[in-house]
Amino acid sequence: MNTVTLRFYAELGDLLDPGFRGRTFEHHFWGQAQAKDLIESLGVPHTEVELLLVDGQPAPFTRVLTGGEHLSVYPHFRTLDVSGTTRITENILARPPVRFAADAHLGKLARYLRMAGFDTLWDRSLAEEELALRADEEDRMLLTRDRGLLKRVLVARGSYVHTQDPEDQLAEVIDRFRLENCLQPFSRCMHCNVPVIPVPKEEVSDRLPPEVRKHCQAFTRCPACNRIYWQGTHHEHMERLLCRIRKEPPVPTGLG
Fold first, then answer.
1. Amino acid 26: pLDDT
2. Which residues sit opposite 71 in a β-bridge?
3. How many angstroms from the chain centroid is the CA of residue 37?
4. How far does CA 44 lie from the centroid of its chain?
């Protein structure tokens, strides 16, 4: 049996068993092992790793381990400049991934992302393999809480969502990818992911609840599903959520 020592840094520790977090530990295996397989066997998908050092030197996922090596595993860097270092994967934080794909269990997060203006694929009927293929073909960042899905070879751009509450998940994604200045609230249909278009009040007046017809003047319509949007209480809740994420004062309430 062979032994390597490992240290996982920053948020990668959250993906490990509690006893391995924040410290160097030993891992035993038979024969030889590729670095990628060994790292993923411990619970960390390859999509979460940007830099791997083996005995202090950058190494690829295909590095064959035979025992005695020390592995330092780093997540995607937010502020530290490692451009002169041979990274194991593309820095997914280097450019805003404005196109997302969310797995079947992240439907509410997908709706929130669309509400914030981000092109987000979500279809509960897609099998995992189909979702991974669509995300790859359309250059979308795959969001999931399923580490097994992120371990698929086909998934080149993916991100593990740590939190469970949908509103917190939205805040996490926006913070992780530094998207605060990329928000375009209420520019997409939350159901269809299609950009909405302005529509005159007189064209939709017969479809509006009486109070909305009385108080609201601005409307948009989804050209795909024909849903009508206006600045009602749901709109106000979303505005407050985005203000909290952007750390701005809450907007005034009331139909308008």
1. 98
2. 6, 54
3. 23
4. 16
Cβ atoms 10, 71 nearer than 8 A: no
The strand order across the sheet containing 2-8 reads 25-29, 2-8, 70-74, 51-54, 57-58
Beta strand pairing call for 99-102 and 119-121: parallel
Predicted TM-score (pTM) of this structure? 0.87
Candidates 157, 217, 225, 161; CA nearest to 191 is: 225
How do the domains of the chain map onto residue ranges? 2-74, 99-182
Judge: domain 2-74, CATH 3.40.50.2300. Answer: no
Any bridge partners for residue 6, and if so which? 25, 71
Mean pLDDT by 10 residues, the chain (256 residues): 97 96 97 97 96 96 97 84 62 74 97 96 96 95 97 93 96 92 93 96 93 91 95 84 82 52
